[in-house]
Design brief:
Elements (H helix, E strand, L loop, with lengths): L1 E7 L6 H14 L4 E5 L13 E2 L6 H8 L3 H14 L1 H8 L7 E5 L5 H4 L3 H13 L1 E10 L6 H18 L3 E6 L14 H6 L6 H6 L2 H4 L2 H14 L5 E2 L5 H15 L10 H9 L11 H6 L3 H5 L1
Parallel strand pairs: 1-4, 1-5, 2-3, 2-4, 5-6, 6-7
Helix pairs in contact: 2-3, 3-6, 7-11
């Protein structure tokens, strides 16, 4: 059984930086990590890439050959990858014995709530290789400073969760920069819990453009609240404690914490309901202390 993360999110949300920082952190706590770049537009990788989709298909070649723009080119590349899934399967099979996998996907949001190619690739890999994956959906924290953009981020997160049908964690990335975007209308807990969205209405009405769509915004907020699926955790990728808390949450969602544990259903249930800041044998104190070099590695 192999565990890993599907890293997704809009352009600029920090996916590549996340994969770089997360791979460093996981190595520091003793895991053997393989980063798989499935973004054919990502030609400047800061991390060591184990598998690169550009060995199969290049966005620039697709755009030139088929006279497509970047969005159409990315859709073509995902379709091409789906049709050549055996290439990716063959590349992944040598890693299955002892690696933890990080999949770095493109930032085109349509691929994860509208088109089916990326989802089909993920589902095929899960079935063929017995993977246990969690979708980590990054959203730039600066969207919280604009009520309209925040509602859009909620709707995108909900649509993506429903489309992918994976264990799913929404993350407000770059949380260390949130104060530079201006004063928030509410405490940060309001934005992470995503409840009582009616309180946003007053702030939306202050903008003449948003006020025109008052009824539509209210209906969208009602949809989000009725599903009651979306919330966020926060992340500062240069803070070892922040990254460690997210890793624990991911491990709980995809079942990594249960790997190698022989226990009854009752014991599994006890582990499952514990808060995310529990201490377990995969996080010995000596390993966490070693993470003091984490920030240095990112610079």
């Amino acid at each position: 059984m192999v565990f890993g993360q599907v890293v997704i999110g809009p352009p600029g949300s920090g996916k590549t930086t996340y994969c770089n920082g997360m791979s460093q952190f996981l190595k520091l706590i003793g895991r053997k990590v393989a980063v798989i770049n499935l973004d054919p537009a990502n030609d400047a990788l800061p991390y060591e890439c184990t598998i690169n989709i550009e060995d199969l298909v290049k966005l620039s070649d697709v755009m030139n050959e088929h006279s497509l723009g970047p969005n159409g080119g990315l859709v073509y590349c995902m379709d091409y990858l789906e049709k050549n899934i055996d290439w990716l399967q063959a590349k992944l099979e040598p890693l299955l014995k002892d690696h933890y996998l990080l999949f770095d996907f493109p930032g085109q949001v349509e691929l994860f709530f509208l088109h089916s190619s990326a989802k089909n690739v993920i589902m095929r890999l899960i079935k063929l290789l017995n993977l246990r994956l969690t979708a980590v959906h990054l959203v730039d924290a600066h969207l919280c400073s604009d009520p309209g953009k925040y509602v859009s981020a909620l709707l995108l997160s909900l649509s993506t969760m429903l489309h992918l049908e994976l264990p799913h964690i929404n993350v407000l990335s770059k949380i260390d920069l949130i104060e530079s975007y201006g004063r928030l209308a509410f405490n940060l807990d309001f934005y992470t819990d995503a409840q009582d969205l009616s309180y946003l209405q007053h702030h939306l009405d202050q903008d003449s453009r948003s006020a025109k769509y008052r009824k539509l915004t209210k209906e969208l907020c009602d949809v989000i609240e009725n599903f009651s699926l979306v919330n966020f955790t926060t992340l500062d990728i240069q803070d070892k404690e922040s990254v460690g808390n997210l890793v624990k949450l991911i491990d709980k969602s995809n079942g990594y914490i249960f790997a190698g544990i022989e226990a009854s259903a009752v014991e599994f249930s006890k582990i499952a309901i514990r808060p995310v800041d529990w201490d377990y044998y995969r996080y010995p104190c000596s390993v966490l202390l070693a993470c003091s070099d984490f920030v240095i590695l990112l610079i």
